[in-house]
Amino acid sequence: MERPELWEWLSKEVMGEKGVVMLIGAPDTGKTTLCHFLISQALRQGIRTAYVDGDIGQSVIGPPTTLGMALLEEPPEDFSHLPWDLLYFIGSSSPARHLLPVAVGLKRLVDKAKEKGAELIVVDTTGLVAGEVGFELKFYKMELLRPQALIALQRQDELEHILKGCRGREGVSLYVLPPSEGVVPRSPERRREYRQRRFEEYFKGGRKVEVDVERTVVIDPAFPLLKLGEDGGRLVGRLLGLNDGQFFTLGLGIWEGIDEGKAYIYTPLEETEAVRFLQLGHITLRRG
User: Fold this and answer.
1) Predicted confidence (pLDDT) at residue 284 exceeds the cutoff of 80
2) What is the DSSP letter of 26?
3) Are 154 and 224 members of one domain?
4) Does position 1 have pLDDT exceeding 70, yes or no?
């Protein structure tokens, strides 16, 4: 994809402000590519930069269904498989029914990036911008993150219902840009294939592990009042996050069963000693 002169100008503006930079736009507008460009430019200038990936369906940091944060030291040669510093499990590939977890997770990752000394934090987001749901997700995400710069990639006026609450706001610079002409649209099928491939890559080489449910807390957001052991068969195949004591995600797993106080989980995570929460997701995966 070409790097228009407008991007060069934008990168200088962003690097001058530093702080949190949030990108929004409909699908196939080039948000992620612009994120990568801004990050690379900042790193070449010696700016300590964090990348927060909020696209739970087409993630590049961590597997799908997770939010990810990577603190970078130099421009990556390949952004497609970045090692992560932190993950936050959402458990779905769409934010539509999980607005609060997505907003909270992004806030926690941005706060951690600040704690770790990031001068510039670039936040990528999903393409969900339409209607009331898109407004609530993006507008209140901005309220939580309080970005110094908001970059909106807009074809016509599809973001105006969101942007009208940002124009003239104190403390935030708003940049409205057209999408790059080099964007290649991805069909829903291609997006599904991407998620499937990422899951396969992540779980390759996994193994079945035992987790003592006496020392962990099992959280099922879909059935929060149902006790563990009641209708246990419904959990088989459910994707889950293996979370630490701060509720950040150490790895993903697939629930395979429970017996005599032991949960059996298929996961590539090598060490489960630090796992304190088993957070069940909203999708089922077939292993193999």
Assistant:
1) yes
2) -
3) no
4) no
CATH number of 149's domain: 3.40.50.300
- Give CA torsion, residues 71, 5, 162, 143, to 10 deg: 30
CB 165 within 8 A of CB 46: no
Length of the chain: 288
Give the domain extent around 242: 205-284
Nearby residues of 286 by Cβ (< 8 Å), 6 or more positions away: 237
Give the Å distances, CA to CA, from 93 to 65, 126, 128.
5, 10, 12
- Which residues of 125-216 form beta strands (DSSP E)? 149-153, 173-177, 207-212
The answer to whether position 175 is within a domain reads yes
In a domain, 43, yes or no: yes
Q: Domain check: are 261 and 168 in the same one?
A: no
Neighbours of 94 (CB within 10 A): 15
Judgement on whether residues 109 and 165 belong to the same structural domain of the protein: yes
Chain segment 157-211, per-residue pLDDT in tens: 999 999 998 888 899 999 999 998 778 888 999 999 999 999 999 999 999 999 9
